[in-house]
Amino acid sequence: MRISSSSGSHAVGSSPEGIGAATSASSSAVAWVISTATSSLTRCSRWICSSPRSICVRASASRAWSSAIRVLIAVIPACAGVSPATTVAAASPTSPVAHLSPRRRPAIFEFHDYGALQKLKESTNKNPTRRMSYDRAITVFSPDGHLFQVEYALEAVSKGTTAVGVRGKDVVVLGVEKRTTAKLQDDRTVKKIWKLDDHITVAFAGLTADAKSLIDTARVECQSYRLALEDPPTVEYSTRFIAQTKQKFTQSNGKRPYGVSCLIIGFDKDEPKLFSTDPSGVYAEWKANAIGRSAKTVREYLEKHYSEEVAASRRETEKLAVKALLEVVQSGSKSIELAVMPKNGPLTMLSKEELDAIMKEIEEDREKEAASKKGKKKASE
Q1: pTM, whole model, 2 decimals?
Q2: How far is 286 from 299, CA to CA, in rounded Å?
Q3: What would the pLDDT profile of 274-285 be if each residue is shown by its tens digit?
Q4: What does the pLDDT look like over 24-51, one tens digit per residue?
Q5: Which residues is 166 bridged to in the sheet?
Q6: Buried b (16+ CB within 10 A) or exposed e, 272-297
Q7: What was the pLDDT predicted at 117?
Q8: Do 243 and 232 form a contact (C-beta atoms < 8 A)?
Q9: Contact indicator for 291, 259 with CB cutoff of 8 Å
């Protein structure tokens, strides 16, 4: 195997003696070589496909450059499980990167065996530690079309407390899971439901700090809208502003996505509205929806039990929101917070006594349903 680099031409065997020759340099050089080799293997941002049969690895410094190439030659085939019989050439004066300084010129690993290169690429894609560059740069798509930072933000949302929104005929209800606070903590400071304007309210799931920052920004926008147009902002306008703010943070360097999803409720011209947004900047209008932990389970329950008859009654709408939360909340009304916004009325946070009354009605309904099923079963027998 021959290596052509900016420091000259070298011959390196694929035997252990070849590897030993690479590690016979000074201790500081060897430390840098190992660091460079490991970095090149685990950071795919340094891997550039220069041709169907080659891989380009760029080192970050010129010190001990030839030794670094030798170690990479020894390490890459061993880690990827491919044959070490490769030809390696550094950027030559006639190459497209000849204008770069020696320390910035990449080493080109050319594989004679096309199957070996495919094996290396497949192992890189399957190994999460070898695709970290797509994690670190929000503006870089992975080869299969993913933005990993956005997906990780969605994962942060899925670990947050559950929030449910249900739209009725003349009312909109928000229900959230309230986690247990510390013994000496004031639970009034731990809120998941916030007002953006007199007629707009938001509940969130995900990172609380991100949510508070986003809510403050949205509140300022609502007041600016009132000042400029002398009219209250619509629910859809506020939702669109929040979604656009989130989307900007998915394509800007030096930023990360908001790790929060929102349910936004309100009334536009006496018409109830329920919107949701996610970290990618997508928003949509819903009749009922859930975000946060076990959102899929809660959403399936809502799809099964939501109907126009339920939406026509304020009490049934409130009960549906509580029932949906009980799918994931085990401690009853102690861990549930419910906000109700009626038509032409202010937002109301239900007290513990009101929640207990709803829970009692739900239990009675379940008992009646069980008795009814039992009676039908006996009649069929």
Answers
A1: 0.66
A2: 11
A3: 999 999 999 999
A4: 333 444 344 444 444 444 433 333 333 4
A5: 173, 288
A6: bbbbbbbbbbebeebbbbbbbbebee
A7: 52
A8: no
A9: no
